[in-house]
């Protein structure tokens, strides 16, 4: 009985072989964990384009005004948001405006949280009611003429529902001075509707763009894919009073600047973030 107990106790003691195996396993586990941490550090990260305090990293260009003239304080930062307002305007006079980030991007994931709000400028064109947008692959505002109404760009159109109660999707594509390939061919419509639901005025909406250079472009609204197209290129109409040297129809748009729109409807932007998806080609 005594011998059996001793043998049992000896059997329960970890052997040298077991200890070594355990130590190797622990080391491998730590190595894998370290590699995972290293990998996550190299993954793309979200970068704030709007710092919540000011728009010093952005450039303003408003129709009928020179670049840098933030006419009537159209774009302002209040309550940690970029606000588009018209309370200091006289006549609207088609003074469509855009707030451009300072550098271009080509491959990226853009995230913007916005809400259509406030009182529409009643002498603006009727189509601008509850309407704003995010321009991307846009020409540099420095290349725009003083009386050019829209930048040559692709627009991620932002809409809120109207009082008629009819469906009015947001996250549509509009094409000032551009064309895109949709469902296998160049679509000549100025705007292509998305498959999103209708959102009410004063409702915060999460809008996302995944842009892969001059290849595939994806629109997402509140996490749902609502529209896809490809091959953004210069072409089409709508843009007026542009420099002909800039509008080279048929030229693929591989990159461009991002801009927030002003066209007669107040809108708030509380978050503007980007994840750069362009791989570093340096060796």
TrEMBL record:
One of its GO terms (molecular function) is hydrolase activity. It holds the Pfam family 3keto-disac_hyd. InterPro entries: AL/BT2_dom. Residues 45-274 form the 3-keto-alpha-glucoside-1,2-lyase/3-keto-2-hydroxy-glucal hydratase domain. This is 3-keto-alpha-glucoside-1,2-lyase/3-keto-2-hydroxy-glucal hydratase domain-containing protein. It comes from Pedobacter nyackensis. The lineage of its organism: Bacteria, Pseudomonadati, Bacteroidota, Sphingobacteriia, Sphingobacteriales.
């Amino acid at each position: 009985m005594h011998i059996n107990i001793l043998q049992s106790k000896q059997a329960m003691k970890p052997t040298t072989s077991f200890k070594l195996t355990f130590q190797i396993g622990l080391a491998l586990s730590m190595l894998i964990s370290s590699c995972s941490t290293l990998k996550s550090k190299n993954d793309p990260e979200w970068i704030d384009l709007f710092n919540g305090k000011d728009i010093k990293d952005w450039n303003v260009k408003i129709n009928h005004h020179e670049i840098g003239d933030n006419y009537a304080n159209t774009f302002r930062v209040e309550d940690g948001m970029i606000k588009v307002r018209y309370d200091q305007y006289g006549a609207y006079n088609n003074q469509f405006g855009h707030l451009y980030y300072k550098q271009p991007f080509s491959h990226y994931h853009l995230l913007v949280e916005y809400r259509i709000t406030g009182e529409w400028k009643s002498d603006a064109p009727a189509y601008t009611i509850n309407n704003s947008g995010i321009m991307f692959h846009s020409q540099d505002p420095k290349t725009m003429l003083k009386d050019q109404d829209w930048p040559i760009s692709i627009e991620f159109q932002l809409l809120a529902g109207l009082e008629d109660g009819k469906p009015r999707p947001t996250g549509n594509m509009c094409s000032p001075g551009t064309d895109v390939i949709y469902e296998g061919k160049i679509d000549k419509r100025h705007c292509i509707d998305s498959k999103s639901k209708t959102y009410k005025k004063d409702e915060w909406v999460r809008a996302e763009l995944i842009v892969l250079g001059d290849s595939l472009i994806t629109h997402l609204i509140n996490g749902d894919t609502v529209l896809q197209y490809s091959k953004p290129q210069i072409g089409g109409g709508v843009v007026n009073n542009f420099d002909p040297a800039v509008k080279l129809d048929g030229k693929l748009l591989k990159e461009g600047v991002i801009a927030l729109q002003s066209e007669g409807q107040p809108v708030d932007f509380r978050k503007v973030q980007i994840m750069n998806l362009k791989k570093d080609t340096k060796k």
